[in-house]
Amino acid sequence: MMAKRLLLVSFAAIAVAMVAVFSWSSWPSAVDRQSPDPAVSLLNAPLGERGSFQEGYFEYAGNRLHYVEAGQGETIVFLHGFPSFWFSFLRQVDHFKSDYRVVAIDGLGAGKSDAPTDERDYKLEAMAEHLAALLDELGTQQVHIVGHDWGSAFAIGFAQRYPERVLSVTGLSAPAINASLHALETDPSARKSAGYVERFKQANPPLLVLLGTAGTIYDGAYRPLVDAGKLTSEEGDLFRGATSDPRRTNAHINWYRANLPHPDDLTEADFWPSRNARVTMPALYIWGDDDPIFNQTALDRLMELSDKSRLLTLPDIGHWPHVREAEIVNSAIRTHIEAASVNAGAN
Questions:
Q1: Least confident of 67-76, 135-144, 201-210
Q2: Which of 115, 230, 250, 319 has the most beta carbons within 10 angstroms of its beta carbon?
Q3: Would residue 22 count as lying in a domain?
Q4: Residue 48 Ramachandran class (φ > 0 left, ψ -120 to 50 alpha, else beta)
Q5: In this structure, is residue 267 part of a structural domain?
Q6: Higher pLDDT residue, 32 or 128?
Q7: What one-character-per-residue DSSP string does 34-72 give?
Q8: Contact 235, 42 (CB under 8 A)
Q9: CATH code at 303?
């Protein structure tokens, strides 16, 4: 009788634990919007009371985006990749704020932006509408747009979808989504190298905790940059903190779930904004030749779809060229956007 009772208690405890885990997994992770973003505080610290970086939030279709801005002039929008947040462009926003209005955005599921549980919110079309509405809110009709990794796919796609709003586009370390899907459709090596995507898509918060994903993200992406002296330890700690919440990491993975179907399940509708959508404005693509994400078929397709493009390949550089070689990248971006400026050739 006692054994039966203990067994029932054990089953009840397991059931309660399973419900708790499921509920915890389903809750959107809370965001502290009362305290200043520590990354903003760090960038503003040398400026004292003259700190120039300001935070803002913009809600559209029920989701709030967090963004950081500084400076005046033509606007440069920066879109980060996975797993990261706006601070991945710290060397760029700090460099360009003296001559431009810089706006760095936390994508859904990252930083201090919302992390909705509905995968449909992460569709590139939905996020592009949100970005276009944010630009309206900021009072800027045309921008230069710069993205890294997933942010690059988003930036180039936004330029394809809203060409009238983009003066120039710069993509680092990833092509447009229609070029990537073309590679998955036609290149067996692209399918093989993208195998990790399907594993990502199967993740959930308890599994991410069990696998120690937060430590893996830091050790794989950010510790090497700290060890190489490309990030300070304090900057590295900010990246560690921003990528350590398993619920938000799981939400950020929705970028993959919503936009990258299994290669066997591709349909025409997946080629956002369309299979043959072109990049009509000046485009700069920056790649490290030691980048494990690189795929030549995707890059070739991107160049085919681009009317006015230039490729900058950095030797012996991996997936973080804008951090590893910030001065070279900043110089290339500056030359690129100056040529595409609304004032170019005025004098």
A1: 201-210
A2: 115
A3: no
A4: left
A5: yes
A6: 128
A7: SSPPHHHHHHHGGGGGG---EEEEEEETTEEEEEEEE--
A8: yes
A9: 3.40.50.1820
Instruction: State the Cα–Cα distance between residues 167 and 171, nearest whole angstrom.
Output: 14
Residue 342: the pLDDT is 80
Task: From 178, 170, 146, select the one nearest 309 (Cα to Cα).
Answer: 170
Total number of domains constituting the chain? 1
From residue 56, alpha-carbon distances to 8, 64, 91, 105, 131 in Å are 52, 10, 20, 10, 14
Which residue, chain included where needed, has tokens 């985006």? 65
* pLDDT value of residue 46: 86
148 conformational bin, left if phi > 0, alpha if psi -120 to 50, beta if neither: beta
Neighbours of 35 (CB within 10 A): 8
Helices 296-304 and 177-186 cross at an angle (nearest 10°) of 130
Of all residues in the chain, the percent with pLDDT exceeding 90 is 79
Q: Which distant-in-sequence residues (6+ apart) come within 8 Å of 248 by Cβ?
A: 29, 109, 110, 115
Q: How far is CA 124 from CA 80, 83, 104, in A?
A: 14, 17, 18
State which residues form the domain around 125.
Answer: 48-340
Burial status of residue 109 (CB atoms within 10 A of its CB: 0-12, 13-18, 19 or more)? buried
Considering the chain, what percentage of its residues have pLDDT values greater than 70? Answer: 90
Label each residue of 73-104 as H, E or C.
Answer: CCEEEEECCCCCCHHHHHHHHHHHCCCCEEEE
Token pair belonging to 116: 């909705």
| H helix runs in the chain, sequence order | 2-26, 38-44, 90-96, 124-138, 150-161, 177-186, 188-193, 195-201, 205-210, 213-217, 223-227, 233-242, 246-252, 254-259, 296-304, 321-324, 326-340
The reported pLDDT for the residue numbered 315 is: 97
pLDDT at 47: 77
pLDDT of residue 195: 84
